[in-house]
Amino acid sequence: MRIDGIFIAAQGSRRQPATLFIDRSGQQDACLQLVLGDDAPPITVQISAVSPPIAGADMRITLGGQGVFILRDDHLPRALTPFLPPSRWYSAGVWLAVVERLNWRYMAIVLALIIAMAAGIRVALPMLATQIAAALPDRWLVAAGDTSLAQLDNLLLEPSQLPVAKQREITGQFNAILAQLPPDKRRIRLHFRQSADIGPNAFALPGRHIIVLDELVEFIGADSDALTAVLAHEAGHVIERHSARMITEATLIAVVAALIFGADESLIEEMGSMGASLMLAEQSRGFELEADRVSADVLTKMGKDPRHLATFFNRVEQACGAACDGAGFFASHPSFATRRQQILDGTQR
Amino acid sequence: MPHNDSQNITESDPAKLPNRFQPLTFSGTAGDYFKIHFVNLFLSIITIGLYVPWARVRHRRFFYSNTRILGDGIDYLARGIDLLKGWLIAMAVLISYNILPMIDNEYAVFQLGYTGALILLAPWAINKSLQFNARNLVWRDVRFKWDGTYFGVAIYLFLGPLIGLLSFGLLLPIFSRLMRHYIAKHYSFGTTRFTIETSLADFYKAALAAVGVFIGVVMVVAIPVALYLFFTGNGEQGLTSVFAHSQGTIITLIFGGQLLFIGLIMAVTTYYRAVTRNLMVTGLALGDDIRFRSDISAVRLVVITLQNAVLSILSLSLLWPWAQVRKYRYMVDNTWVRPNGDLDHFIDQQQANSSALGDALSEAGGIEISI
After folding, report:
1. In angstroms, what separates the C-alpha of B199 from chain A's closest C-alpha?
2. A48 with A139, same domain?
């Protein structure tokens, strides 16, 4: 049996055609012999290492101490197997090369498994994030919320211009909401701010802060039940720890992506961050619905109509037209229609 | 499968090689890499990332071994186990960097210090990575060698480009030329050094063309997108309002704008890199007489890069392996070497492996230097 290739002597680039012969003439085990060129006398050689095969590449066979025999093929001839040094890494490499060269039908199975695992991670991450967020000590959330509030005050928010009497009235309304919450969840604080950039809105920070903007109070006007509904919605965000869940999930996604992909090509990173945004936006829409349910619950407990929030949505929609309802895959909030539907479904039950 | 295309060069007497430029060839196929890539991905997911070092080795070996210079592939000798330790440390750094600030505000300060430490560490990691990879690259049983230093890397690979950017690109050609020179001069093949000669005027010409594209791009697309992002306040993390203050369609538009922006930046940088790579490779010499040539068309490479990006996104990254092979093959096919006689006289006196920690750290930082 002869195997043609190229021999390169150790530590130099000199290459020459060479042949490996498997000599079975002796009475004992067969031995491996190297012949340089066509007519040099055969040298008995031993294989000290072989790089695991990889598609398209030459096989690199190290002949202990003497040099390297390059075989122009991406498989090792079976005849050489008895001469290989025992190496678990090499066997694993061979196994890998076999898997990497499975036909397309089997590759389709590998692809399907990848998609299944990705789907598994996709489902498991929000659940895991919720578990972790629930276990976070209050102290941490409060600290995070305090920092956010300070930063927002620096960057975006102005002090409220509402008359003190109006602020008191709203605080009174807010305390009535807190009274409906479980006793350990009543430490939420309401802050009045103003921001022309953000416009009529209210929002919750992690920990214990809810901020209502003058613009929202003006927009709502005399309809105090609508304000109650909105504040209860924000309280829902706080008690359900939505911010913490969101941040935890974002972190988990970043960590899992780093583990699995490393920091690979920047394109994959970009796509990863798009995917993460989609996941987080979907999660965010879920949180909004959850907070809407809290709002409806609180209103019911206070003896009010739980549909005030839905009425409020109608007014927002009328004020800014259909464009306001642009729900989409990247949107942080569900469409008003979806949210109204949930509230109405809740009341009919 | 034997590679017949390279047979006539390689199997003939090397001393009779004609004294003219020969193209490098690539013997891998997209189909082969597709399978390697998805087996890598599968094993990485199922081992929660533990397989990544081995995946990296398979990936690199596929591209290096199939890159044939005068018919012979470049062997990559690093093993997954060599990369694993560094990889674990890099992951610990990355994870603690991401998680600590979530735990307590006090760690926000800590993260700042961490960032500083990582910046100081980066040149070391890059330097070690170049060293590690050079030593593990072998052509005809002669290893490559990198002998850059921490300060050299810090100055030419980090500080220089930074100053170049801060000078609004005015000094960028000077620094990118210095960087390419630094890289070329500190590589050797066995005991033979690489040398390089380029003209600064050519770098300025390349930059002028790229800057022209860049300015046009910024005027038309980037500024409106950036302004929009600024005024709509994308930074609402941890803030949950009662209804969205920017509408879904607009958010989708912003994402579209971001994508467009990334694409255009990609186009400009690819263009500039392609031209300066041509300058570098063409100015490169190994020893006294071995010359190289690169005649990549910058426009063609930009088109390939953008097509690749679009196809990869549209196919949810399914076509990514194909795209990568296509781009790599284009670059290899347009790189040439003029051996000038036989290549039998190179000598290698290096010891085997060095630490792979730097390699893993710079990989984790997403920085990779390749010629």
Report:
1. 31
2. no
